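Example record used in the benchmark description.
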Amino acid sequence: MKIGIIGFGHLAKSFVKGLLAGQLIDKNSIFITAKSRESRKIAADEYGINYFATNKELIHNTDIIFITIPPKVFRSEFIDIQPIDCMNKNIISFMAGVKVIELASAFINAKISRAMPNVGIEKCKGIIGYTPTENSTVLYIFHHLGDAFLVKEEDIEKVTAFASCGIGFASYTLNCFYEVGKQLGFCEEDSLMIISNIFSTSLQSNRYQQLITEVATKGGATEAGIKSFEENEYKNIIKSVFMHRMRR
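Model output (structure tokens):
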């Protein structure tokens, strides 16, 4: 079984790292295409995988093809040009906002599905929402790269916003805590240690509202801080960044 990956950006690299770390696919069976010579060199030298010169060559010589390029690149390189006959091969798109009907105009005779993973797949601890596929190898890969679940196509942008963009939003929040910790006078090491502890403790509790009640004693500093969050509509700010991403 040969795996083809169109594009070799951050998501594709995370995907390959996950495939190799989980020993899901042998590196000699992974092929990529990339515009830049530097990306192709990285694929060969750092990951030990192969590459093809063109997308058409990759499609014709691999069994399952994953598309990881940005939507605007896909539309400039595949739409309004002669469609590629995929000979009933499986095409899986990791692109946000590109619907199956649009993919079908570029890849004829293909079995097309969409998926949206986050970068946690590089450690086989990702989130992957995917539209229906009957390919057992694809399902095996997805369920071994993290927590995978089936979604309707109209819901896949929700996965993009919540699980994929969510990592960036969560990291931004963590970095804000880190910067505030330093402003309060903690050294970098202690600031990182405290952040790691408070977030891991909260996550491990898995009962967020109850933990808030336990920590926010009446008249205390935590209660005052949460009241400030509510007055500034913190929840609505979080909701708005996800809704903005989904409308794009």
